[in-house]
Every structure is written in structure tokens, then in C-alpha cells.
């Protein structure tokens, strides 16, 4: 009787181990299949984005000869050891991306202002011996950019640079608009009008059109992500390139204006003003497929 019990117990243990192993195997296969499905879906998203941009570049005559210098509004940055080329667009996740890059490089900065200053010194693209658009395209390093809905980007500029910032460079603007979104938008529109009359008039890079910062029509970007899908897009870029693997994309110096941006500031504008803004950012809307 005792021997029968021992044999039965042994059989039960073997069966239990077999079930556990089978479960783990099936779970592993399911995870692999789910991950591959996610990779395939993200690849289609990125390709669709790039194909759309190519079509618009052909359709819009202005973009044919519009070329952005490599030192652009913020300047393209890159590094051979980390393995990237990145074109920053202000208010489109650029601070977070720069913070990730500095983390990977193990370079600490005391605040956001030092972050922006140092990164463009340490990771200048000319250190890669890239001095032209052709050189950019010939580089085997993955070329990355992130874009954002033009109106959400404008609201982000307002909340961050007018309502929250201690940046002395925006003190005069804060004095002018006094926390009023309508006044801020009028200031933005006036900058655009001045720029149309005289190219010496500068549109601030935090609300200038995004195609002013990165040459999407002449540079073959491998990855064009969006702020709306930032973490998911960055996870995909990490999976395909291996960069940023040493950090968590859920951490970093994220912008604190997120909660304020939930306020529907655009509803404070009349329809005529919205139409003017839509015309000013028309190429961004068309280029990146935003409604």
C-alpha cells in the first residue's frame, strides 16, 4: 500500500511539473507572438507615417526647395557610441529625449537649462563628420525625430513658457500676455506676420512650425514618432536599435505642464483666430497627418 502511494505521488509530481513546464512554454510562446505582433503593428505605423510625409513633400511645392540647415533651430545631435542621430523639435518631447541621451552617456546636469546647453556641445552632429544633408542620409546611424499636433504643441508652449517657467528669457513675454492665452496667441501670430514681411524677424523655436526644425523632405528619417504615442514609439525604437536600453522610458525629466494642458485653452479662441492659426501651421498639419 505504501509503495503504491509513493508511486502515485511520484506520478502526480511528474504530471504537475509537466503541466507547469507546458504552461510556461505556452506563456512564453504567447508573449513572443504578442511581442512580434506589436513589433509588426508599430513597423506599419512608422512606415505609414513616413509614406504620408513623402507624399506631402511631393505635393507641396514650398517643401521641394525648403532645406533646414543641420544646426537648425536647436541643432541636430548624434553620437556614434550610443548609436543615434536625433533632430530635436521644441515642445515635441525634446527635453525628455535629451535627458535620456544624457542618462545613457552618464552625464548629469543640474537643471533643464544646463541640459539644453551641454547636450548641443557634447553631441554636435559635426563631431560625426556630418556636414550636409547628403552626409546625414549616408550615415548608418538611426535617424530619429518626434512630432506633435500643432495646437497641442502651442498650448504646451503657453503653459510651460508663460504660466510655469522661471526662464528669464521669457519674462518679457510673460509681462506682455499676463497669463492670457488669447494675448499669447496674438503674440505668436504677430511673430509669423513679422517673419513673412522680413526674414530677420525670428519666430521662437517653441512655436515655430516643426518643419522649420527638421528637414523631413530631404533627410531619410528612420523613425518619426509622435508625442501622443511617445513611450510606445520610443519602446519600439529601443527594440529595433538597442539604444536607451539602460534606462526606463517611464522615467526622465518629463515636462510638468501636462496637467495644465488638459485645460481646453483652444476653446477660448474665436473661430477666426483658430482659422488663422490653422493656416499658419497648415504644412505641419498636412505633413504629419493631423486633423
Secondary structure topology:
Blueprint (H helix, E strand, L loop, with lengths): L1 H58 L1 H4 L12 E3 L4 E4 L6 H11 L7 H11 L10 H6 L4 E5 L2 H15 L6 H7 L3 H17 L25 E4 L3 H12 L16 H4 L9 H10 L1 H7 L3
Helix pairs in contact: 3-4
Name its key features.
56% helix, mainly alpha, elongated, 291 residues
Explained architecture:
- The protein is mostly helical.
- The protein has two domains: 1-51; 61-288, Rossmann fold (3-Layer(aba) Sandwich), CATH 3.40.50.
- It contains twelve helices and four strands; from the N terminus they run H-H-E-E-H-H-H-E-H-H-H-E-H-H-H-H.
- It has helices at residues 2-59, 61-64, 94-104, 112-122, 133-138, 150-164, 171-177, 181-197, 230-241, 258-261, 271-280, 282-288, and strands spanning 77-79, 84-87, 143-147, 223-226.
- A four-stranded mixed beta sheet has the order 1-2-3-4.
- A hairpin with a 4-residue loop joins strand 1 (77-79) and strand 2 (84-87).
- Helix 3 packs across helix 4.
- The longest helix has 58 residues, at 2-59.
- The protein is elongated and about 100 Å long.
- Mean pLDDT is 86; it is low at 252-256.
Amino acid at each position: 500500500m505504501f509503495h503504491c502511494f509513493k508511486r502515485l505521488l511520484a506520478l502526480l509530481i511528474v504530471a504537475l511539473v509537466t503541466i507547469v513546464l507546458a504552461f510556461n512554454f505556452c506563456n512564453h510562446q504567447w508573449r513572443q507572438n504578442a511581442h512580434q505582433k506589436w513589433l509588426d503593428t508599430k513597423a506599419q505605423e512608422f512606415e505609414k507615417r513616413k509614406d504620408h510625409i513623402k507624399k506631402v513633400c511631393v505635393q507641396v511645392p514650398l517643401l521641394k526647395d525648403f532645406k533646414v540647415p543641420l544646426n537648425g533651430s536647436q541643432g541636430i545631435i548624434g553620437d556614434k557610441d550610443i548609436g543615434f542621430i536625433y533632430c530635436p523639435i521644441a515642445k515635441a518631447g525634446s527635453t525628455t529625449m535629451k535627458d535620456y541621451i544624457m542618462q545613457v552617456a552618464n552625464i548629469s546636469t543640474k537643471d533643464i537649462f544646463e541640459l539644453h546647453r551641454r547636450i548641443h556641445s557634447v553631441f554636435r552632429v559635426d563631431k560625426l563628420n556630418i556636414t550636409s544633408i547628403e552626409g546625414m542620409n549616408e550615415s548608418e546611424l538611426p535617424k530619429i525625430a518626434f512630432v506633435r499636433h500643432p495646437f497641442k504643441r502651442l498650448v504646451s508652449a503657453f503653459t510651460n513658457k508663460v504660466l510655469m517657467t522661471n526662464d528669464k528669457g521669457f519674462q518679457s513675454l510673460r509681462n506682455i500676455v499676463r497669463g492670457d492665452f488669447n494675448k499669447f496667441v496674438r503674440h505668436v501670430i504677430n511673430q509669423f506676420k513679422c517673419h513673412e514681411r522680413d526674414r530677420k524677424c525670428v519666430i521662437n523655436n517653441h512655436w515655430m512650425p516643426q518643419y522649420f526644425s527638421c528637414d523631413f523632405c530631404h533627410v531619410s528619417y528612420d523613425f518619426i514618432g509622435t508625442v501622443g504615442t511617445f513611450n510606445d514609439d520610443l519602446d519600439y525604437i529601443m527594440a529595433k536599435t538597442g539604444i536607451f536600453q539602460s534606462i526606463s522610458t517611464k522615467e526622465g525629466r518629463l515636462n510638468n505642464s501636462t496637467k495644465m494642458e488638459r485645460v481646453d485653452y483652444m476653446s477660448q479662441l474665436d473661430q477666426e483666430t483658430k482659422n488663422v492659426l490653422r493656416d499658419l501651421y497648415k504644412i505641419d498639419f498636412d505633413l504629419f497627418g493631423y486633423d
